[in-house]
Amino acid sequence: xxxxxxxxxxxxxxxxxSAQDATKKAxxxxxxxxxxxxxxxxxxxxxxxxxxxxxxxxxxxxxxKDTVAIQQALDRCGVLGGGEVVVPAGNYSTGSVxxxxxxTLRLEKxxxxxxxxxxADFAVSQVRWEGKWIQGHVGLVSAxxxxxxxxxxxGSLIGNPALGxxxxxxxxxxxxxxxEFINCNDVRLEDFTTSxxxxxxxxxxxxxxxxxxxxxVNATGGNGDGVDIDSCKHVVIDGCKFSTGDDCIxxxxxxxxxxxxxxxxxxDVVISNCTFEDANFACIGIGSELSGGVRNTRIEHCKFTGxxxxxxxxxxxxGRGAFIEDITADDLDVSGMKQGFLRINVLNSGIQDxxxxxxxxxxxxxxxxxFTNVRVKDMPTxxxxxxxxxxxxxxxxxxxxxxxxxxxxxxxxxxxxxKLSAIKVKATDGPLLNTINVTGVGLTGTAKIDAPxxxxxxxxxxxxxxxx
Length: 468
Description:
It is a single chain. By secondary structure, the protein is mainly beta. Helix content is 8%, strand content 48%. The chain contains 4 helices and 33 strands. The chain has helices at residues 18-30, 32-35, 67-79, 256-262; strands at 49-52, 61-65, 83-87, 90-94, 97-98, 103-107, 111-115, 124-129, 132-137, 141-144, 147-152, 156-158, 179-182, 185-190, 193-197, 202-205, 208-213, 216-220, 227-230, 233-238, 241-244, 249-252, 266-272, 275-278, 284-286, 294-306, 310-315, 323-334, 340-345, 365-387, 394-427, 433-441, 447-448. It has a 31-stranded parallel β-sheet that branches.
């Protein structure tokens, strides 16, 4: 279902013109961290119209399906040129609804959209699932091919736990998330709460200029990611609180030859002033679907309070290809991790694609990773960065001004241009620094470790891959 184009533009987020894009691209060459600073959004224009879903028949009684009434209000707002659709206090049972260009969905205090328990109430489209484009149910609130779309609070969006989980024999299509915007520009998500179980919460895909601010994101159970940024550009995630059943934030760009051919990179992402608690995997996961690459990401002024694995997990595998480069993390407080602060595994994380990128081209490239001003408490392992291929060693790793306590220290393999300084952490279980095939500065006193076990090379296919 495609979004209708409004006749009058009512910006919800300041657009970034082509001249600014060119300036940012030039800046990334010399100062990638500076390129990641958030752009201040202009104040939104006065809405052309303000419509109330109650005026279109919505009941908000928590029992009656209000899908048609809510969609009528959104459609009417779109054809009138844009504005706001207001959801007053109440519980509105609904299937999937679609925002149109220039439309803001405003959830007032004590207003909740509640997903129904019926898959048939959720539209079907091409959606991304684990890095592949497949048929699937779209999100509770969605937009496709729309510009200047917003959801603002302080109300709530609540997915139905009956629709969580992975595709299965009974329900073979991908299950719905809570918010899903596909191929949209100038997206604003602000000041509301989400709740979901066993499925992602917020999933922008192929979007540009995305602002996610002051959200409370709750999810439970495996597969319960908070925000999945999927092949998007110019993204700000600021002031959000996450309590999730899987990665709090995951940065992705597709899997295998399909995504490698499309090469839709996730880039220019700022994650700032957020608090993370994860029950099943990592707080911030970069990967493992990375065949379109991830670059120019900055994580700053954040607090990590718990994770089943690591606070930050960079993950991919041979057969993904592409790159992870210019990742900067600064001013972090980290505690409550079950495995450690930082993990880098680009050898064997995630399922192999049925059409992997062959040969050395399929080995992910790592470049310019910086972690500075990090305070850790009781880390089982400070850094585990050993699962890196010697054919493409990590090129540029900075660890500076790291303080606190840990059991095991830093483990590095197959890296060059490493810079370690002011590591004020004492490892209680073995040497602080453990390496193999690593060069750089600050490596005095290192203990030697075994080389990582390498996966089998990915062979060339009998026929070259073609998009299909």
